[in-house]
Amino acid sequence: MNALLNRIMMYVRNVEATCAFYERHFGFERSQVPNDRVIELKSPNGGAILMVHQAAKGVKSGQVTIKLVFDIEDVERFKQQCATEGLDFGSTHKADGYCFANAKDPDGNSISISSRAFAQVRALKDLG
Predict the structure, then answer these.
(1) Predicted model pTM
(2) CA angle 114, 83, 89 (to 5 degrees)
(3) Which terminal residue of the chain has fewer beta carbons within 10 Å of its beta carbon, N or C?
(4) Fold exhibited by the domain 4-127
């Protein structure tokens, strides 16, 4: 299985100001599924997607405000594969049509494996 780093989760204090900053200065375009708490910012030129999420009140700027999100179609299978290699992910969380699990890298940085990208592809196919 290949893991692609295509998304970066940003936990921010002011979602609107952060989105406006990246839209204005870097040309990102906003995308949000109804009732989803995550806003995706995509560059028309490609590259990683910035996923903007409201930070919890106790989170200080510069402390656990970025999470690397790897697109994985089969989260459970990938978790099992990683466990055999010594990387244990936490519980799998279910969201709107996708799931994800979290872990930390050796420096304590947050990482996530998520099937979100594949759920969005399926949703778009269902609309067409």
Answers:
(1) 0.68
(2) 40
(3) C
(4) 2,3-Dihydroxybiphenyl 1,2-Dioxygenase; domain 1 (3.10.180)
